[in-house]
């Protein structure tokens, strides 16, 4: 991992995902500095993607829940343990403010 602080952790990553798949997926977020892909046997993988710019990190985090290769992934800021990582627990909708019309 790089010392820039613009790193995301990608969990629930398919074991068939490659570094090239990650680069292709995250290149739309912004310029990538480095990708570390850690294999966990045939059960899945974890990746750390370091960006050159802070806006790229923010964009990448918004992609949590998207599918890379063949399964949805969780994308969170690396080193932020208080950030909710389970996208299944996040609501997919939000209640808008009630507006009273007269």
UniProtKB/TrEMBL annotation:
Domain of life: Eukaryota
Stored SUPFAM superfamilies: RNA-binding domain, RBD (SSF54928)
GO molecular function: RNA binding
The keyword RNA-binding is annotated on this UniProt entry: yes
UniProt keyword RNA-binding present: yes
Domain RRM: 6-80
Keyword entries, A-Z: RNA-binding
Matches recorded under InterPro entries: Nucleotide-bd_a/b_plait_sf, RBD_domain_sf, RRM_dom, Vip1-like_RRM_plant
PANTHER family found in the cross-reference section: RNA-BINDING (RRM_RBD_RNP MOTIFS) FAMILY PROTEIN, SERINE/ARGININE-RICH SPLICING FACTOR
Name of the protein in question: RRM domain-containing protein
Species in which this protein is naturally found: Aegilops tauschii subsp. strangulata (Goatgrass)
